[in-house]
Write a structure and sequence with these properties.
Number of domains of chain A: 1
Structural class of chain A: mainly alpha
Helix content of chain B: 40-55%
Distance between the termini of chain B: 172 Å
Oligomer: heterodimer
Largest sheet of chain A: none
Shape of chain B: elongated
Distance between the termini of chain A: 27 Å
């Protein structure tokens, strides 16, 4: 059920008026929340960014749900990667010690292996995924959506009064 | 930038602050209550908790700590408590309290509601700590003593039914021993038969006969006969040596077989012990009486202190290490700590000042310092010092929980003098006193722990004691003897020793009542018990005596037969020895005669 719902939601978003950057922005912010443990201080910041920045909230929610699944599957890898970053990188120990003893930062749980591992992973993925999603949306709209719009059935539906009312409602909602 | 989003965000922030302001107190209150309840093992309640960011400070109107042993009573109750927290550490999730004043402490106050909590089952795979296993062992030791039922002293012991129930081990073992003795006999019989010297003796006889004395006519023939005798003597000596060695071996082996008789006695002893256990005949050792009277009370008290140590050690074990956890729970990960030289632990109560009243309105005051979530980080042990005095009474508690080294160390010492005893519960026996009704008490106790090693001593003295019994009048002779002993006792001394390791724990309780009671019991019921013991012993002896006698007889007979056999052969060898000696003598006589003839001849030759 979930993949179908997700796909439906994705198609709706792709067909909406949201720009590719808004969609890609929402997707990567949702990815950070999804990949990292939810109750972390940095996620509060990401939530604030989702609310304040003009990114697509629907895709952010969908992306969070999707990457939560990945997070569960990749948890052992995040733990090992986080342990490597926190313990094995000896030159970082001084920075960690300073951060650890700074109020508020200590509450960010950066010293947790899974938080550190998943956060750094999502930060590494941030720009590539943004570019990928943005280009993907552009390509989809240029190729698939344009062909879809040219279909006779679609044209016929778009010509109906009901669709006209729906379009006005959608415009108003946007 | 989303305008509407910013507005929504501001609204959310305002809501969060408003809800936070309204709920912080309840959240903190339930968090502290839940944690403290878990540690205490019974309900801990805080009334009117208030947390204020100004300061920041915490306060509450009342704190009730339920006594886990009596959940309708508070172990500790306090009045208003107010203390400040350090602000900046709070932003790092650290609770640092410099001064914490706990005044108006009362002990043993009644509760309006039951403070019991559901018993939490241990998760499978949970390791049993040194403390919990020691507590369990102590409880078991006291539990064992409840089996010591004084009513048994007045009961008749049915020896026949005990013996019929008893499965004696010794008859079977004696039968097996008998078989072994028989096998041993057969083995020796075969061995001796195999060594039959008839053939050798016949040969020796022939050799002796072949030495003809009449043939000794000159020196040469004499020398020949003499060397033949020497040869035969060598053969006889060899035969004799072999037989002596076999005889020695036999005698050693058979003395081993005789030791079976000693084993039989041990088996009978074991059967006797088993019968005694089945009959549950009481042992008048002083330990059982002292443990029965005071054991539970002492164990409860010791276990309470061990519980505190266990809790402290439990938290010590939770101090995380940087060693990689191979498989932490999903989405939980592992926290890595980066403490700096000036770092502070997550929790540190630097000084707690206590004041209040111990039961019976005795004022007490004291301090507990440096309670922290990481003692190594602050480099200080937890020190406890509480004392108080009033008129002729005094109380002092000093303790230290030292977790600075790899081996945890704890020590407590208590001095409590001149306190009034009222209704101090003892046993639930129908014969022994159920409580000390009144009296004055003195306690001096110490408990030192170093890793798994315990060393504790308790000395309890009470004077002007009056005991209370379950029934007003004693029922039966035994009860009245016991009551006379207690009514005639005005001073009770109890010495407790607890030492060793968890797997080798010594818990001994001695009291001046022990000897008095022991003597009284022996006088009253000891004779009957001794008679029953004797009867059981006789029954067992009767069962095994015949079998034992059979084995004894068998061993003796076999030994006699085999010895006779060996002796018979020895006699034959000796006879040959004698024969050879005779021959030797005859030859020597011939030599002498020969010598005389030669001398005479020589004399004739030189005659003028």
């Amino acid at each position: 059920m979930f993949p179908l719902q997700f796909l439906g939601k994705l198609i709706t978003i792709l067909h909406s008026g949201a720009t590719p950057s808004q969609i890609a922005g929402g997707f990567i912010l949702g990815m950070i929340i999804g990949l990292t443990p939810f109750w972390s201080l940095h996620n509060l910041l990401v939530l604030l960014l989702i609310i304040i920045l003009n990114v697509n909230i629907a895709i952010a929610i969908a992306s969070t749900a999707l990457f939560s699944l990945f997070a569960y599957l990749l948890d052992p890898l995040f733990h090992s990667f986080g342990y490597f970053l926190l313990v094995d990188l000896s030159f970082m120990q001084g920075i960690y010690m300073t951060l650890y003893n700074i109020p508020i930062i200590a509450l960010s749980r950066f010293n947790n292996t899974v938080v550190m591992g998943s956060l750094v992973t999502s930060l590494i993925l941030l720009i590539p995924v943004f570019i990928m999603v943005k280009n993907g949306v552009i390509k989809y709209r240029e190729n698939v959506l344009a062909r879809f719009e040219k279909l006779k059935v679609v044209k016929a539906i778009k010509g109906t009064k009901i669709y006209g009312w729906y379009a006005k409602y959608a415009e108003w909602r946007a | 930038m989303r305008k509407s989003g910013t507005i929504i965000l501001l609204v959310i922030v305002a809501l969060v602050f408003a809800i936070g302001y309204l709920l912080t107190d309840s959240l903190f209150e339930s968090l502290i209550e839940d944690t403290a309840t878990e540690l205490n093992g019974a309900l801990v309640e805080i009334d009117d908790f208030d947390f204020s960011l100004a300061g920041p400070k915490m306060r509450w109107q009342r704190l009730q700590v339920t006594d886990p042993a009596n959940t309708m009573q508070n172990k500790i109750e306090t009045g208003l408590v107010e203390f400040n927290l350090e602000f900046w550490p709070l932003l790092s999730g650290k609770f640092i309290i410099e001064n914490f004043e706990l005044s108006g402490i009362k002990t043993g106050t009644a509760r309006e509601t039951d403070g019991a909590i559901p018993i939490q089952e241990k998760e499978e795979g949970d390791k049993e700590s040194v403390i919990s296993s020691t507590q369990k062992k102590l409880n078991d030791q006291v539990k064992e003593e409840t089996g010591f039922d004084l009513s048994k002293l007045s009961q008749k012991v049915n020896v026949d039914s005990i013996v019929s129930l008893l499965k004696l081990q010794s008859p079977e073992k004696i039968d097996a021993a008998r078989k072994s003795v028989e096998q041993n006999y057969s083995k020796w019989q075969e061995k001796i038969s195999a060594l039959n010297p008839e053939k050798e003796i016949t040969e020796i006889q022939g050799q002796i006969k072949s030495i003809d004395v009449k043939k000794v006519k000159d020196l040469d023939s004499f020398n020949k006969a003499l060397s033949a005798i020497k040869k035969v003597k060598g053969n006889i000596d060899k035969l004799d040596k072999d037989y002596r060695s076999t005889k020695k071996e036999f005698s050693t082996d058979y003395s081993g077989a005789s030791s079976v008789l000693g084993q039989i006695d041990e088996w009978v002893k074991d059967d006797y012990k088993q019968a005694m256990a089945l009959a549950k005949l009481p042992d008048f050792s002083t330990q059982s009486i002292a443990k029965m009277l005071f054991g539970k009370k002492i164990v409860n008290q010791v276990n309470e202190y061990l519980g505190y140590i266990g809790t402290a050690r439990g938290y010590l074990n939770k101090i995380p290490s940087s060693k990689k956890e191979p498989d932490p729970p999903r989405l939980k990960g592992q926290d890595i700590y980066f403490p700096s030289d000036n770092a502070r632990p997550d929790f540190w109560l630097q000084k707690m000042a206590l004041s209040g009243n111990l039961s019976q309105d005795m004022p007490l005051s004291g301090t507990v310092t440096d309670i922290s979530s990481d003692p190594k980080m602050i480099g200080k042990p937890v020190d406890i010092n509480i004392s108080g005095s009033s008129k002729s009474r005094s109380y002092g508690l000093a303790g230290q929980l030292n977790y600075l080294d790899s081996i945890p160390r704890e020590n407590f010492s208590i001095d409590y003098n001149g306190f009034a005893i009222t209704d101090l519960e003892l046993s639930k026996s129908a014969y022994l006193p159920t409580a000390i009704k009144k009296g004055n008490g003195f306690i001096k106790a110490s408990l030192n722990m170093r890793g798994d090693n315990f060393d504790g001593k308790i000395k309890f003295t009470s004077a002007q004691v009056a005991f209370a019994f379950a029934d007003e009048k004693p029922s039966g002779k035994l009860a009245s003897i016991v009551r006379d002993v207690f009514n005639g006792t005005k001073e009770v001394n109890v010495d407790v020793i607890l030492k060793g390791r968890k797997d080798n724990l010594v818990f001994a309780v001695k009291s001046n009542l022990d000897e008095k009671l022991g003597n009284a019991f022996k006088a009253a019921a000891g004779k009957e018990i001794e008679q029953a013991k004797e009867k059981i012993r006789k029954k067992i002896d009767k069962e095994v005596a015949a079998k034992k006698a059979e084995v004894e007889k068998l061993i003796a007979e076999n030994k006699k037969k085999l010895e006779a056999e060996l002796q018979k052969y020895q006699a034959k060898i000796d006879a040959q020895k004698e024969e050879l000696e005779k021959k030797k003598k005859a030859i020597e006589d011939e030599k002498k005669k020969l010598g005389k003839k030669v001398t005479d001849k020589l004399k004739g030759l030189f005659k003028p």
